[in-house]
Design brief:
This protein is of the alpha+beta class. The strands form six sheets. Strands 1, 2, 4 and 5 form a four-stranded antiparallel beta sheet that branches. Helix 2 crosses helix 3 and helix 4 packs antiparallel against helix 5. It is globular, with a radius of gyration of 19 Å.
């Protein structure tokens, strides 16, 4: 039998949230622990981190260009973040050596900035930033097209953004993580794209990574119940070919993830707050 995760506070009357979570827990569904429900103070802290995180990506957007190195992008991210009283969460996280992930073309995610990775005409690149401000975290990524690219890559970038938007629309209070994944996968399959299964979105806010795992494929009604006060990312990785991936053997840090068939991949990401009416984006 599944161990209960939702703890009742002795002497405190049950709220509507308590009753709804206990109902689904009684049905055998996975529910959050109470500490995943953010307080108003915590939400405001995450919101402030989100403002800086958005500013970082805006700064990258204003300066990214053909001929620059991904190491230059890393310097932009580091300098902007520090100048705004925050820290780049990826820096030295479990051995990651830089402040941002820069993933070009077939690199699905966790691309490490390098002086010899030069952006070329037609490249597509994902820039993934996580900002920590006063102990609170916000996480988002954007795709950038360098100059003019192929219609196939343009469509991939567009559909990946649509997958994020469709996933957000599917995220309703007292729905399940699987509802998000089902909606995303359904849209990607219309274009015969693969949705990466080995990596996922995640809870965020008080820590860099928290529960739940937000998978981008699957069935409705599966995964963790999503309730108001939870904060999490949706970040579908959409491959032009197979969903399968591998770790680059030439990466000494063991981080860079590449599509198995080495076809292009695209990803967009936001940090979301679940409210009584749906999700609110904290990283605009």
């Amino acid at each position: 039998m599944r161990k209960k995760k939702w703890h009742i506070i002795p002497g405190v009357p049950l709220t509507e949230l308590d009753k709804k979570v206990m109902y689904w827990e009684g049905k055998g569904k996975e529910v959050p622990s109470r500490d995943l429900i953010k307080t108003p103070e915590q939400i405001e802290g995450i919101r402030r981190a989100g403002i800086v995180n958005t500013g970082v990506l805006d700064e990258v957007a204003s300066k990214i260009h053909q001929g620059m190195s991904t190491l230059e992008i890393d310097e932009i991210v580091y300098n902007y973040t520090i100048a705004h009283g925050a820290t780049p969460a990826p820096l030295n996280y479990e051995g990651f050596p830089k402040s941002v992930c820069t993933s070009i073309n077939e690199v699905v995610c966790h691309g490490i900035p390098k002086a010899d990775d030069i952006l070329e005409e037609g490249d597509i690149i994902n820039v993934d930033c996580t900002t920590c401000l006063d102990g609170y975290y916000a996480d988002a990524s954007r795709m950038f097209i360098i100059g003019k690219t192929t219609p196939e890559k343009e469509q991939l970038v567009r559909v990946a953004k649509e997958c994020l938007e469709i996933g957000a629309e599917a995220a309703k209070p007292y729905c399940f993580v699987g509802d998000i994944g089902h909606a995303i996968e359904k849209h990607a399959k219309r274009y015969h794209y693969g949705i990466v299964r080995d990596l996922c979105g995640h809870g965020v806010g008080n820590q860099f990574h928290e529960e739940p795992d937000v998978v981008h494929y699957g069935k409705k009604g599966t995964g963790m119940l999503l309730v108001p006060g939870m904060v999490f990312t949706i970040e579908p990785m959409v491959n032009m070919g197979t969903w399968r991936v591998f770790i680059d053997a030439d990466d000494p840090f063991g981080w860079e993830v590449i599509s198995e068939d080495e076809k292009p991949s695209a990803q967009w990401e936001h940090t979301f707050l679940m409210t009584d009416h749906g999700v609110e984006v904290l990283t605009y």
